Amino acid sequence: MDDNRDRKLDREELQQGMEDYGMSLDAEEVEEIFTEFDQDETGTIYFEEFLKGLRPPMSDTRIDMINQAFDKMDASGEGLITISDLKNVYDPSYHPKFQSGDMSEDEVFQEFLNSFDVPDDPDGTVTREDFLNYYSGVSASIDDDEYFVEMMKGSWKLE
Questions:
Q1: Element (H, E) at 48
Q2: Max intra-chain CA distance, the chain
Q3: Secondary structure letter of residue 45 according to DSSP
Q4: Inter-axis angle of helices 47-54 and 128-139, nearest 10
Q5: Is the distance from CB of 85 to CB of 110 less than 8 angstroms?
Q6: Helix, strand, or coil here: 126?
Q7: Which of 45, 60, 62, 117 sits most deeply, having the most CB atoms within 10 A of its CB?
Q8: C-beta atoms surrounding 15 within 10 Å
Q9: Residue 126 phi/psi, 5° resolution?
Q10: C-alpha torsion angle, residues 20, 25, 27, 30 (rounded to 10)
Q11: How would you write the pLDDT of the chain (159 residues) with one tens digit per residue?
């Protein structure tokens, strides 16, 4: 659908893309779909918004596990995960780039934070929403709640 490959869709690209896939929609239907996906109301559907719109909703069980992991990492309780929070739960000394001397401890922590942060707007911190969005993507590829719970418990040493 993204004919100009700028990782975003405008209304015309969305309508043309729907037609390309055999869906004849009137302007009102296209607008309804566009509005649903354009969560930040910029008049553009960014790639991340598109992916979020396609993901199935998470169960309360999964959301609870994600919140437990976030709360464990957010040692300060301020609703943000920062490098200082990570120092309480993550040991960078096993990271290959730290061991080789290619990265400092703070650079390893920053790389870890960036994996959860919003790709188009990394700010060096991870909010609960960023964390939930990250795991929403992970969740979409796991069919079973029990497996998701065990994965979260193992990854974050949750009870």
A1: helix 47-54
A2: 58
A3: E
A4: 60
A5: no
A6: strand
A7: 45
A8: 21
A9: -125, 120
A10: -70
A11: 898 889 899 999 999 999 999 998 999 999 999 999 998 899 999 988 888 888 889 999 999 999 999 999 898 889 998 888 888 787 888 888 999 999 998 898 888 888 887 666 677 788 998 899 889 988 988 999 999 999 999 888 888
Instruction: Return d(Cα 151, Cα 138) in angstroms, integer.
Output: 11
Per the confidence metrics, is the pTM higher than 0.85?
Answer: no
- Element (H or E) spanning 98, and its range? helix 96-99
Please answer whether residues 83 and 108 qualify as being in contact, where contact means their C-beta atoms are separated by less than 8 angstroms. Answer: no
Are 60 and 70 spatial neighbours (Cβ–Cβ below 8 Å)? no
**Whole-angstrom Cα distance, residue 118 to residue 62?**
20
CB–CB of 30/15 below 8 Å?
yes
* The residue to which tokens 């974050």 are assigned: 156
> What pLDDT score was predicted for residue 37?
92
Amino acid in position 143 = D
pLDDT at 120: 63
Task: Decide if 65 contacts 153 (C-beta within 8 A).
Answer: yes
